[in-house]
Amino acid sequence: MAIINSARELDVYKLAYKASMEIFHLTKNFPTEEKYDLVSQIRRSSRSVPANVIEAWRRRRYPKNFVSKLNDSETEADETKYWLDVSFDCKYIDKETHDRLYDQYDHILAMLVKMIKNPEK
What we know:
Layout: H1 11-27, H2 35-58, H3 63-89, H4 95-117
């Protein structure tokens, strides 16, 4: 098993960061009237997922704090799924994009839950 020296080396971080960047680029094409509502919300929640993983990593010596920040990341990932639903229902993204990103966030959530259940690993 390889030693991980940075949160940026974690698969969950890499996937969450990549998904947040894709959402950033997608939302550039959303209507301007959504700039301060939907665009702001989905960008914020998607960016919070990897940011909270980074914070959790720094708190890993303290299992309760580590798990708490991972729970924050989990919450933000689930919120992002909600905003993906809204984006799809408003017809700002197509079904293929929605389903692909939704599946990515399901995978991110599964990884976070595994980390929460086994914080010592």
